[in-house]
C-alpha cells in the first residue's frame, strides 16, 4: 500500500542546449553573464567586479570561465582596442539568465494572468502550427536526441524556442520596456 500518491504536474520547463547547460554548471559563470548582459568588460574588469561581488578568483580562472561561456556561444567579443602593443578584448553576453524565485503567494495572485496567457497562447500556437507547421516539423526532424531524456519533445522545444525568441525580440526592441513603463 502506498503511503502517498499524488499527481505531480509539470510546473517548470528548462530549455537549453547541453553545451549551455554545462557552461552554467558553475555559479561564477552565471555572475559573469549577469555583468556582461548590460555592459561589455575586459577580463580585468570582470575580475575586479567578481572580486567586488565576493568571488576571489585568479585572473586566469576568470579567463577560463569567459572562454567556457564563449565556447558555449553565450559570450562574444564586442570590441577590440589597441593597448600598449597588444589588443584589449571587450566581452559582452548575448544571453540573459533569469534565476529568481517567485513569492509564495504568486500562483494565486497571477491566476487570472495565467488563464489569459494560456488562452492567448493556445490560439497563437494553433495559428503558428497552421501557418508554419511544416517548417517546425522539418526542424524537429533534424534535431538530435537530448542526452538526458528518454522521451523527446522536439516540436514542443521548437515552439518554446520560437516564443522565447519572440520575447527576446520584444525586449531588445524596447517593446517590453514600453509596456512596463505604461503600467507605472
Automatic annotation (TrEMBL):
SUPFAM superfamilies reported for this sequence: Winged helix' DNA-binding domain
Residue ranges occupied by any HTH arsR-type domain in the UniProt entry: 19-106
Source taxon at top rank: Archaea
Entry protein name: Helix-turn-helix domain-containing protein
Gene3D superfamilies from the UniProt entry: Winged helix-like DNA-binding domain superfamily/Winged helix DNA-binding domain
Pfam families: HTH_20 (PF12840)
Amino acid at each position: 500500500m502506498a503511503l502517498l500518491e499524488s499527481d505531480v504536474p509539470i510546473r517548470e520547463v528548462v530549455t537549453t542546449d547541453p553545451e549551455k547547460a554545462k557552461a552554467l554548471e558553475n555559479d561564477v559563470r552565471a555572475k559573469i553573464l549577469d555583468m556582461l548582459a548590460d555592459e561589455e568588460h575586459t577580463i580585468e574588469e570582470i575580475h575586479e567586479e567578481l572580486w567586488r561581488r565576493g568571488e576571489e578568483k585568479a585572473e586566469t580562472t576568470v579567463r577560463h570561465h569567459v572562454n567556457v561561456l564563449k565556447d558555449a556561444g553565450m559570450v562574444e567579443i564586442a570590441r577590440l582596442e589597441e593597448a600598449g602593443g597588444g589588443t584589449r578584448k571587450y566581452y559582452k553576453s548575448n544571453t540573459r539568465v533569469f534565476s529568481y524565485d517567485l513569492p509564495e503567494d504568486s500562483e494565486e495572485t497571477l491566476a487570472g494572468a495565467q488563464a489569459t496567457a494560456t488562452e492567448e497562447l493556445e490560439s497563437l500556437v494553433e495559428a503558428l502550427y497552421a501557418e508554419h507547421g511544416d517548417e517546425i516539423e522539418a526542424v524537429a526532424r533534424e534535431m538530435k536526441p537530448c542526452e538526458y531524456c528518454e522521451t523527446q519533445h522536439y516540436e514542443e522545444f521548437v515552439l518554446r524556442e520560437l516564443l522565447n525568441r519572440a520575447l527576446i525580440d520584444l525586449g531588445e526592441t524596447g517593446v517590453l520596456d514600453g509596456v512596463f513603463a505604461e503600467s507605472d
